[in-house]
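Interim report to the steering committee. The following record documents the input for Peptidase A1 domain-containing protein (541 residues).
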Amino acid sequence: MHSFAFRSFVYALCLLPATLALRIPFSVRSNTHITRQSSSGGVFPVGNTQNSFYFTNITLGGRTISVMLDTGSSDLWVTGSVPNAQDTGKSLTLSYAVGNAAGDIYTAPFSMGGYSVDNQAFLLVSNTSTFSTNIHSEGYDGLIGLGPNSGSSIYKKLSGDAGNNAINRIFEQNSADDYITLELSRRGDPASNITGQFTISEIVPGYENITSMPQLPVETVYKVTDEDQHWQVLTDKDVGVIGPDGQPIKISSIVPKAPSGQLVAVLDSGFTLPQVPRSMSDAIYGRVQGAEWSASQGAWLVPCGQLINLTLAFGGVSYPVHPLDVSSSDFGVTFSNGNPACLGMFQPISSAFSLLGEYDMILGMAFLRNAYSLINFGKLVNGGSNTNQPYVQMLPLTDQAAAVNDFIQVRTNGQNLIGSSQYALLPASQGQHSPESAAEKKHDYEEKILSRWPYILVGCLALVLLILGCCIWRCCKRRRLRRKAAQQKNDELSAISTTSTRKAGPYSQLHDSQSTATLAMQPMRASTLEFKAEYGRDAFA
Ligand SMILES: *[C@@H]1O[C@H](CO)[C@@H](O)[C@H](O)[C@H]1NC(C)=O
Ligand SMILES: *[C@@H]1O[C@H](CO)[C@@H](O)[C@H](O)[C@H]1NC(C)=O
Ligand SMILES: *[C@@H]1O[C@H](CO)[C@@H](O)[C@H](O)[C@H]1NC(C)=O
Ligand SMILES: *[C@@H]1O[C@H](CO)[C@@H](O)[C@H](O)[C@H]1NC(C)=O
Ligand SMILES: *[C@@H]1O[C@H](CO)[C@@H](O)[C@H](O)[C@H]1NC(C)=O
């Protein structure tokens, strides 16, 4: 699951270095979005850098460290030095698109507000010289993975439960309410009164209604790959994503067991840009006049004054996405003619594409700002006593009408141009489509096979059994006939060898069918391995 942490970086960092790093040497310690400080032990203010990184403070070995909050990965890593840390003698290398991060696994006393655990395992990243951006200047010196423990690389590296991740350790010790909640602020939005907050086993005051929102069961991935389990839920049937024209965007899921008309969405606070199927991204931005596909950003560019409506639906509840989140002015991007553009935040999924067909889309920060989210870990706490299914609850935070006003103030200087002809959507037939690369076509094809391998395997086995059954049946039948014939001959001639009949067809046929089975299964296994390697490469290279 560290792959997700990594990808968080890819998408955040690939885009940002050129824009963020050069543009503003902004002060990260700005307190404007870190307001609510709770006296209770489980509510933490969340800092926000340029709507692209969200972080909070932990203490490790007595040192206060700002760490990025990542619901899409499961490990804790920090840079710099940690007092009172014990080296476990184990090391781990995480390779990023932006460089390699290697280090030793240490343990140290960990605390977050009122929660403390001893000997918390973490990766101490000693060499950050290969990071293409200075993470410290972006407001954090590490990352805390808030995903299921089964996805932790440190957990896998250490024996027993010594490597359990921090949030798991907290829940092991305090098993009453195994949930976290997350609320992300939106910078550059003068009308927003939302402050960034992260909580453990508590609800942010004023948002108690979240507990009466529908409980969305966390969709489980195939057992064999439970290290890839993420916080993922199903969109509503047929109306899960409502596009700019007010009509549902209809896309079939790549997840074999997803019910028809529903998509599997991962909630991942480590992704700046939500990752969606390419045809969905095209449906959102392709009908905007003047929209331009940017190959270098791997995303659509649209005029900043273009208001684009987008609403997601889960559990029968609508979650409108703020138009300031559908297209963003945070990245300083320009059209090919040099004019300023806004970045289409719902980016076609490419290297984060699920080759195993485990999810369709990844809802990153630009979506998460629009909902106060609660994740109940349930039985996914390793060593916990809770046997309930994990679930997600979300409280919508964006009021569409207020958001439209807000957009008009921010993007068109208070002038309402929403109905004007320059911002009318093109007819669907004139909509643009972004190009699908050869690599993506290959991924699509591989996914179709890989995601269905359990079925294919069962199918192969059934076929083999069927052929085997047929052979045995025919063999028996033939033998019976032969025996009958032999018996008859025997009656006439008294000596005859029956051994020759044993050499007959059936056995060699059986052999054939066996080798067919091996042939059918061999490439499957090989490509699963290949996939693993490729997944790793994609994710870390
Ligand atoms: C983390 O702690 C530092 C120093 O105590 C403080 O200045 C900063 O605002 C804190 N960050 C957050 C996100 O609370
Ligand atoms: C850090 O890693 C880079 C690239 O692998 C290497 O060139 C450099 O020497 C390393 N620095 C230290 C202090 O190990
Ligand atoms: C935020 O503002 C809206 C309207 O401006 C108000 O209804 C809501 O209660 C406020 N929320 C909080 C937490 O202050
Ligand atoms: C909370 O839920 C109750 C009942 O569902 C509703 O009456 C109330 O208006 C809600 N409050 C807020 C702030 O949404
Ligand atoms: C987007 O939604 C707003 C508010 O509901 C509405 O006024 C506007 O007409 C919608 N835009 C389009 C293109 O449907």
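Residues 203-434 form a domain with the Cathepsin D, subunit A; domain 1 fold (CATH 2.40.70.10). The committee is asked to note this result when reviewing the revised timeline.
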